[in-house]
Amino acid sequence: MPRLHAFPDSVAFARRLARRAALPVAALRLHRFPDGESLVRVQAPVGPDAYLVRSLFDPNTKLVEVLLAADALRRAGARRVTLLAPYLPYMRQDSVFTPGEPISQRVVARALGDAFDRVLTIEAHLHRLRRLEDILGRASSSLSAAPVIGAWLRRERGEAVVVGPDEESTAAVRAIAAIAGVPWVVGRKIRQGDRRVTIRFPVLPERARAVIVDDIASSGATIATAARALRRGGVQTLDAVVVHAIFAAGALASIRAAGVRRIVSCDTIPHRTNAIAT
Predict the structure, then answer these.
(1) 135-162 as b/e, with b when 16 or more CB fall inside 10 Å?
(2) Annotated catalytic, 62?
(3) Residues 236 and 201 sit within 8 Å (Cβ to Cβ)
(4) How many whole angstroms separate alpha carbon 79 and alpha carbon 1?
(5) Is the Cβ–Cβ distance between 266 and 254 less than 8 Å?
């Protein structure tokens, strides 16, 4: 029987997944040497198909460790190794924006494509190339979080307008709204730096409850800017839903100061805002 092999920081997610898939979970052993190097050890029997579970937030250490784990699983007997990474980093840098920069997406994709037979993630932050398999060169997929977000919003049973911060969010926002049975709009975002953007929205009813949906929240600038724009437009009740809850220091405070009443996230990255199981 295939087994989910999970790093200690992803065991809880792996167990939730295992209950739905009726598969056993085995925790990997992880040791860090004084110089910062990692040793990964497989502790359970390994069949021909092995699944490795780890969300890759804080990626600079975790990427190396998942590559080591892939090698360990193959040496323990796996012929096919699949990476289940709820959050997949380095997908945004898909071009050289300033001379002298790398194309980080290609570097990371090449390493993962060499190590794994398949990679599955949730809402990879892709721009020009929309399919993950085109980037990794493997039969890989970026799964949509729209079904679980839409179902969560439907369970809320309140009138709402689903709001996307920019045109890139159109497909996801439209799908979420269709599942929840509510209207939707998207804004026009102009990014002016890592922490500064401007967003414009069509006019919404003054008494509308807006639910801002974004795939990643790091600095919180996009959601906060969207919230301020909506408040200026007369919207009084604002909530926010995030797929990947990175939330750098001060991000939650910034979002709340912009008038957002409730902030919830999916469980792709462990965080106190997690309320939607993927």
Answers:
(1) bbebebbbebbbebbbebbeeeeeebbb
(2) no
(3) no
(4) 13
(5) no
pTM across the whole model: 0.91
Cα–Cα dist 122/136, whole Å: 15
Helix (H, G, I), strand (E, B) or coil at 197: strand
Closest CA to 238 of 251, 249, 250, 223: 223
Question: Kind of pairing, strands 38-41 and 29-32?
Answer: antiparallel
Segment 40-68 shows an average pLDDT of 95
Q: How far apart are CA 150 and CA 176, in angstroms?
A: 4
CA distance 98 to 66: 30
182: amino acid identity, one letter: V
Which residue is catalytic, options 189, 209, 244, 271? 189
| pLDDT one-digit tens code per residue, 269-278 | 999 999 999 9
